């Protein structure tokens, strides 16, 4: 095997290249037009453009990908995860073309990759599964009563949380089935769905297995991935802090037994739901490498990608089960371009500043973003994975909290602060979590995080911004007015800290320090640079580590103790001139429904003249491969629709106009009196 074509993008492509280089294997990356110019493309020895705009034309186009592999004389294709990684037809096409598919056989993928077939195989092998049924949408609508509510709808060919919905009552079922089928067709090319009994508040535990072509199967122990949002994991860890040694042995044995039953080859992961009593049920098998594989690598010392390649080359496993040990504890956080305060809506955009953490026992798998990189809305919103290791769970948790403090993403919404809050939360520390934890507690979590932030005294971010703007920016100023701002009788300036204006009086300023006073606080401070955007704030002889990023002239982001504070210099004339009052909202403007994120309209559920109530579905916008329901904010009537299905939209696009019900009543009354 001399050359591997990687049929994927982003961080997993970089991860595969890293191991290939170690094994002295050349690599080729295919890429869609949306990824042209991405920094990660430079990691490969060669690149091939996939023509087209949609996933079906690019990363899901098996014919073009195989043609690219043949054109560059690649011996093998590594599919990564997602896209074509669990497509048996693609694996079979590779085999027919004489190209090594770095993954399991098509037969094993058919047995396990189709979730319906996988359930049957598990039942045959004696592994417990939850009750469920399969069929067409009309058949499922006729038979769902045998499963009962709540139930879970899943894409038969799915994985990674895509094409999955929980339904609590009958009125939600038809729309949820249709939406899941659409999502499955779009992401996996197969709209088959099935339903199963939904287990409330379970744990999610999965077992990593390896199988070679000689029939040997081993496991690399388990991972726990219970903290999820939108049915997708955001924090994973190994080993599971929940399982007892006896249950760990049983669940790992069940995984090996099931993999052996289908003659599994390559790396694979068997996922289980674990109840409060530690009973477990087979969920599905992912016949590919998992996003969260690094936590297993850090706790076992085994390079899973390397094992995939060696197995694909026909080499027998050189690892014996009895020699595999778990060492310490590893935690992975997925870094997403999303807004936790808006139900984790995807948040694509342009990066103003990007800096990854580094240090001992810190690993980051990323797509090599940099200042000015564009995070597109065409793909999954995950931009990196941050992984830490410690001698035990608490050591790994503290290391992760430290690493998140050193991770900077500005210009787009992201989940770093949310992850940091979770890592500090007593429920995570004491392992009081489940797959429903975030869904149930989201509002309370966000409020607790905000309360923690407010408890931190604003003196540190205020002083850091003050000293930075006066001393570190002075060398770039064209006049004293730009340095100290608007002088009045007493030298003073106005700082807006998190929306609150504070008047600061400057008593004395030298080239290295500032003496100041505000409200009832006074002090003397200086600032010493310790790295890129890193400083030690010396305030009254006490040292405080802070990070400072100037988002715009006179607008600073101060990170202190895990929180980001926005501080503005409102005394500077050109800043003050830009402080416009929020626009007033007229009754007409209030009726304009705009897109909450960039994306594509995939369904319009209303028509002009439709009477709607608050909470009714208006349309569906797909962003970063997730469907987002746009609901009516009020009672009223649809007066106009400005978009069509298939249209691309952004946050400035008006989608629908709704006239308030009361306004219509008044208008009809006025017309009647003429």
TrEMBL record:
Domain Biotin carboxylation as annotated: residue spans: 1-443
Sequence ranges assigned to domain Lipoyl-binding in this UniProt record: 583-659
Alphabetized GO MF terms: ATP binding; ligase activity; metal ion binding
A Pfam family assignment: CPSase_L_D2
PROSITE patterns: ATP_GRASP (PS50975), BC (PS50979), BIOTIN (PS00188), BIOTINYL_LIPOYL (PS50968), CPSASE_1 (PS00866), CPSASE_2 (PS00867)
InterPro entries linked to this entry: ATP-grasp (IPR011761), BC-like_N (IPR005481), Biotin_BS (IPR001882), Biotin_carboxylase_complex (IPR050856), Biotin_carboxylation_dom (IPR011764), Biotin_COase_C (IPR005482), Biotin_lipoyl (IPR000089), CPAse_ATP-bd (IPR005479)
Cofactor: biotin
Claim: Nucleotide-binding is one of the keywords in the record: yes
Domain ATP-grasp: 119-313
Keywords of the record: ATP-binding, Biotin, Ligase, Nucleotide-binding
Protein name as catalogued: 3-methylcrotonyl-CoA carboxylase alpha subunit
Organism lineage string: Bacteria, Pseudomonadati, Bacteroidota, Chitinophagia, Chitinophagales
């Amino acid at each position: 095997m001399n050359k591997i074509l990687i049929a994927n993008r982003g961080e997993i492509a970089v991860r595969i290249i890293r191991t290939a280089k170690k094994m002295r294997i050349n690599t080729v990356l295919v890429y869609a037009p949306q990824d042209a110019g991405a920094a990660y493309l430079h990691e490969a020895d060669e690149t091939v453009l996939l023509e087209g705009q949609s996933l079906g034309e690019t990363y899901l186009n098996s014919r073009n990908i195989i043609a690219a592999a043949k054109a560059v004389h690649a011996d093998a294709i590594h599919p990564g995860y997602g896209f074509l990684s669990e497509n048996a037809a693609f694996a079979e096409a590779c085999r027919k073309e004489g190209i090594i598919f770095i993954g399991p056989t098509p037969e094993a993928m058919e047995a396990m990759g189709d979730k319906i077939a996988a359930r049957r195989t598990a039942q045959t092998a004696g592994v417990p599964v939850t009750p469920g049924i399969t069929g067409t949408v009309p058949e499922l609508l006729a038979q769902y009563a045998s499963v009962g509510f709540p139930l879970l709808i899943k894409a038969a060919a799915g994985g990674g949380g895509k094409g999955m919905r929980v339904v609590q009552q009958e009125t939600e079922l038809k729309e949820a089935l249709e939406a899941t089928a659409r999502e499955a067709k779009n992401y996996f090319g197969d709209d088959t769905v099935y339903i199963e009994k939904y287990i409330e508040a379970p744990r999610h535990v999965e077992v990593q297995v390896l199988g070679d072509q000689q029939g040997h199967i081993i496991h690399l122990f388990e991972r726990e991935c219970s903290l999820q949002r939108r049915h997708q994991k955001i924090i994973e860890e190994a080993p599971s802090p929940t399982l007892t040694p006896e249950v760990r042995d049983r669940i790992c044995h069940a995984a090996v037994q099931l993999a052996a039953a289908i003659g599994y080859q390559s790396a694979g992961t068997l996922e289980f739901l674990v109840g409060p009593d530690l009973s477990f049920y087979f969920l599905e098998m992912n016949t590919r490498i998992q996003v969260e594989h690094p936590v297993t690598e850090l706790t076992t010392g085994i390079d899973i990608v390397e094992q995939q390649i060696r197995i694909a080359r026909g080499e027998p496993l050189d690892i014996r089960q009895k020699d595999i040990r778990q060492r310490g504890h590893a935690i992975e956080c997925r870094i997403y371009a999303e807004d936790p305060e808006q139900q984790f809506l995807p948040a694509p955009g342009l990066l103003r500043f990007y800096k990854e953490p580094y240090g001992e026992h810190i690993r980051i798998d990323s797509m090599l973003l940099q200042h000015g990189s564009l995070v597109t809305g065409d793909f999954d919103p995950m931009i990196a994975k941050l992984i830490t290791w410690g001698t035990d769970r608490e050591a790994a948790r503290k290391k992760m909290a430290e690493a998140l403090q050193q991770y900077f993403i500005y210009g787009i919404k992201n989940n770093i602060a949310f992850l940091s809050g979770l890592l500090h939360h007593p429920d995570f520390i004491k392992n009081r979590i489940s797959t429903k934890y975030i869904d149930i507690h989201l509002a309370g979590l966000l409020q607790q995080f905000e309360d923690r932030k407010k408890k931190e005294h604003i003196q540190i971010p205020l002083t850091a911004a003050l000293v930075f703007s006066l001393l570190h920016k002075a060398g770039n100023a064209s006049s004293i007015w730009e340095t100290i701002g608007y002088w009045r009788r007493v030298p003073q300036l106005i700082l807006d800290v998190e929306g609150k204006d504070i008047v600061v009086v400057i008593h004395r300023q030298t080239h290295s320090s500032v003496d100041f006073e505000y409200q009832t606080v006074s002090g003397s401070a200086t600032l010493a640079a310790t790295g890129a955007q890193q400083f030690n704030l010396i305030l009254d002889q006490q040292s405080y580590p802070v990070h400072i990023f100037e988002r715009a002239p006179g607008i600073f982001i101060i990170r202190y103790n895990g929180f980001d504070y926005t501080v503005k210099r409102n005394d500077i004339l050109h800043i003050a001139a830009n402080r416009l009052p929020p626009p007033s909202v007229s009754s007409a403007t209030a009726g304009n429904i705009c897109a909450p994120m960039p994306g594509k309209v995939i369904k319009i559920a209303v028509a002009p003249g439709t009477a709607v109530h608050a909470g009714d579905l208006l349309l569906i916008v797909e962003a970063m491969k997730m469907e987002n329901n746009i609901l009516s904010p009020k009672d009223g009537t649809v007066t106009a629709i400005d978009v069509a299905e298939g249209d691309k939209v952004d946050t400035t696009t008006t989608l629908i106009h709704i006239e308030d019900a009361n306004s219509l009543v008044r208008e009809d009354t006025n017309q009647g009196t003429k």
